[in-house]
Design brief:
Layout: E1 2-6, E2 9-13, H1 31-40, H2 54-59, H3 79-84, H4 96-118, H5 131-134, H6 143-165, E3 172-181, E4 184-194, H7 201-206, H8 222-244, H9 260-286, H10 295-322, H11 368-386, H12 394-405, H13 411-421, E5 422-423, E6 426-427, H14 433-440, H15 456-472, H16 476-505, H17 517-546, H18 555-580, H19 591-596, H20 606-632, H21 644-657, H22 666-673, H23 678-683, H24 686-696, H25 705-731, E7 738-743, E8 752-757
Antiparallel strand pairs: 1-2, 3-4, 5-6, 7-8
């Protein structure tokens, strides 16, 4: 017996021997002792011996960790053992009907595993939990299963290659680091600076193959074998239909299985699965062809994929009826096959040592129904990419990527988009980066061949441009993080370009009618770089709304910062257009007034007016929120931990470090909003101005569906906020029961005020 003391009393814990004692050993059951010890432990406590040390802890076994616990119970400990015990029979059954059913279940479960892999789980735990894929030669006697496994491996390999090619390695280089400091340039010491995006965690895990048989000899001929099997089943289907219609069978062919009543259903179920796999393989391979040459063909195969996927979904009812599992609506919530049966030949624990490096290591395969929905979404996103017209203008490229990101595309779709945009350091693999910059800067065509492109700083600008495109193709959380970091790089490159151009060509700020092409290139590029910097800053701020990073009490400062960024962006965009047209700006007119003035003496370009709509919305929301804070004491940015000043710095630290724009601080925001009143805001109604300009711009963008949709959203936000502002101004002081809420019901970034009675 052993004594265990706990609390005030003393309890006896019986120790029952379960292992026979030897000459020098005595075994005893300590389960009850451990149970009492566990009950006595509190969170954060650890039982250890006197000789415990950190090295021993690092070398210890972690119980239930598949990588560390060598004694962890598994169904099988190797693929060979699983096969030896009949976990992956070939054929699946000597009954042909059962064999066909089992093969379809394997195909369906592989589809669910593939979707689970695309969603972020490792290849080892999903697709390659299939024993038939781990032992490719084993299925050679089963033509149907063998051909499907081959094309499955080839498809996965093609997808892995695409995602691997678009991974952006962190490359460091040494360069002088110039930082703009309040109107002057501070030159810091030479520091290593990254110019690439860095590894993406989702891409790292996605492309981990762990030495799995992803490439097998003969997989390059997978379509030939699949086509032969498909043709055989198509002939069996034709023979079956001829028998059912009592027509003469023109060819003698053995049926697919033994039950003639199920022959047609099984043939159709197999054909749509084989054809979907064939067309999907064509999609991923054609989209990888250089310079977008395979996009049209890929688009045709995508249409075929949609048809076959619909047929697969329809076949589920037939497959479930065989197993008497009811209709499609009765289940399918967690089943990984269309029939609802458990597939043979899978064991997710076999590759548990190759599982993800961070918890949770256990995964749940998504259902077959959700897998089908996933592929429908993925195919739709790939179809959008294939329909892209490869716009050579950089502004058009940015617009397309931003619009594409609104669909929240999957990793595979984003990888294909990045592969299309950036190939061999060129846009679409055909346009040099300097040529893209020249076109974006509205320079003449001859400028793209100028030797200035060999300048080291210009080359670095090209690298930043490629990095920007890659960043914009990532998921929005990673995208925002990286946009904030590269802001300073764009700010620095502008200073470096200005210094390099001034050193080589003299004062580039001066303008003259007979300036040479070098001076013109320098001026245009500098203006364009500034414009892009402010565009990145605006994108960085807008993404905060999509990621729910701002609380309602912080909307005022966020919209204020968006407002001043949009002013600078509109200035630079207008300056680029004016410089291109060689039109001198009117003397004595401030840049800010030039942008905000609705064009009394001349008409601003539609692109500037479009920005002006956003600018007025941001200004209107800023002043409305500021007035509500000042008069009604609501939506105050206060909290027990952070002051408003600290929150301002936390949200805009990266912008402030890059001096975007110059001379901006929390005190600028405080000074602007401190005296806002509802009476003043309602008199100068920015929302009405935004609504007016949006209506006038309809004719300018009648052929641009995206711009027209955005104008409609702007009109809705402006109209609702204008009405809400009027109500608050008239009834706010009279009726204290009025409550104001802000919702994103009409626009993803600009809130709509909703006035209700409490």
């Amino acid at each position: 017996m052993a004594d265990v003391c706990e609390g005030e009393g003393e309890r006896q814990v019986p120790i029952c021997p379960s292992i026979p004692s030897g000459e020098q050993t005595v075994w005893a059951d300590a389960s009850s002792l451990l149970h009492l010890a566990c009950n006595d432990l509190r969170d954060g406590e650890l039982i250890h011996g006197e000789n415990f040390n950190l090295f021993a802890a690092m070398s210890a076994l972690e119980i239930m960790d598949p990588k560390m616990d060598s004694g962890m119970v598994r169904t099988y400990y190797s693929v060979d053992e699983a096969i030896e015990y009949g976990a992956a029979p070939v054929p699946l059954s000597f009954d042909k009907t059962v064999d066909v059913q089992g093969t379809i279940d394997i195909m369906d479960h592989l589809l669910a595993c593939e979707a689970t892999w695309h969603k972020g789980c490792s290849l080892a735990q999903t697709v390659f939990s299939c024993l038939y894929l781990l032992r490719p030669d084993r299925t050679s006697s089963h033509a149907l299963l063998h051909s499907y496994c081959r094309v499955m491996r080839a498809s996965c390999n093609a997808v892995v290659c695409t995602v691997s090619d678009t991974r952006t390695n962190e490359v460091s280089r040494k360069q002088p680091l110039y930082l703009p400091c309040r109107g002057k340039v501070c030159v810091h010491s030479t520091l290593p600076r990254p110019h690439a995006v860095g590894f993406h965690w989702e891409e790292d895990l996605f492309t981990m193959t762990h030495g799995l048989p992803l490439k097998v000899d003969g997989d390059d001929k997978c379509l030939t074998m699949l086509h032969a099997v498909e043709e055989t089943i198509a002939r069996q289907l034709r023979a079956c239909k001829a028998i059912l219609s009592k027509k003469r069978v023109t060819e003698d062919i053995e049926p697919l299985q033994n039950n003639p009543d199920l022959e047609e259903g099984f043939c159709k179920s197999l054909l749509c699965r084989l054809r979907f796999r064939k067309h999907f393989y064509h999609v991923v391979t054609n989209m990888k062809r250089p310079q977008g040459r395979g996009l049209e063909l890929a688009k045709k195969h995508i249409a075929c994929c949609f048809e076959e996927l619909d047929s697969m979904i329809k076949s589920a009812e037939f497959l479930r009826s065989i197993n008497a599992l009811g209709t499609l609506e009765d289940g399918m919530k967690s089943e990984t096959t269309a029939s609802g049966s458990q597939p043979v030949g899978f064991d997710s624990t076999l590759n548990s040592r190759l599982s993800a490096p961070t918890p949770p290591r256990a995964i749940e395969t998504i259902s077959w129904k959700k897998a089908a929905e996933y592929f429908q979404k993925l195919l739709h996103e790939l179809e959008i990419i294939c329909s892209y017209n490869l716009d050579p203008v950089f502004e058009g490229v940015l617009r397309f990527v931003v619009e594409f990101q609104k669909f929240q595309p999957e990793l595979v779709a984003r990888a294909h988009l990045q592969h299309l945009l950036v190939q061999d350091g060129k846009l679409y693999g055909r346009d040099s980066v300097f040529a893209v910059i020249c076109k974006a800067s509205l320079l003449p065509e001859v400028a793209k061949n100028h030797d200035i492109q060999k300048n080291e700083t210009v080359v670095q600008l090209g690298q930043l441009l490629i990095t920007l495109l890659r960043v914009l193709c990532t998921n929005i959380s990673w995208q925002r993080r990286k946009l904030g970091k590269i802001l300073q790089d764009w700010r620095i490159i502008h200073v470096q370009l200005e210094l390099a151009f001034r050193e080589e060509f003299g004062d580039i700020a001066a303008t003259s009618s007979n300036e040479n092409i070098c001076m013109k290139i320098c001026r245009h590029i500098l203006i364009w770089v500034e414009e892009q910097t402010y565009w990145i800053a605006s994108r960085f701020l807008m993404l905060g709304f999509e990621l729910d990073l701002y609380s309602t009490g912080e909307y005022c400062m966020v919209y204020w910062y968006i407002y001043i960024i949009l002013i600078k962006l509109a200035e630079k965009t207008h300056m680029r257009a004016m410089t291109s047209n060689e039109i001198s700006k009117r003397k004595g007119k401030k840049k800010r007034d030039l942008v905000k003035d609705g064009g009394k003496d001349y008409q601003l370009p539609p692109a500037i007016l479009f920005l002006q709509c956003h600018l007025y919305l941001a200004e209107g929301l800023t002043m409305m929120l500021a007035a509500l804070r000042n008069e009604k004491q609501i939506y105050l940015s206060t909290g027990p931990f952070n002051s408003e000043h600290e929150r301002f710095v936390q949200h805009f630290e990266l912008l402030l470090k890059a001096c975007l724009p110059d001379h901006v601080s929390y005190y600028s925001f405080e000074e602007t909003t401190a005296h806002a009143r509802l009476s003043n805001v309602s008199m100068y109604n920015c929302f009405k101005e935004a609504q007016r300009i949006a209506k006038e711009l309809r004719s300018s963008f009648s052929n641009d569906s995206d711009k027209m949709a955005e104008l409609r959203r702007i009109e809705q936000v402006a109209e609702h906020n204008s009405v809400a502002l009027g109500l608050i101004s008239r009834l706010g002081t009279v009726d204290p029961s009025l409550k104001v809420q802000f919702e994103f019901s009409h626009h993803p970034f600009f809130a709509t005020a909703v006035v209700k009675r409490s």
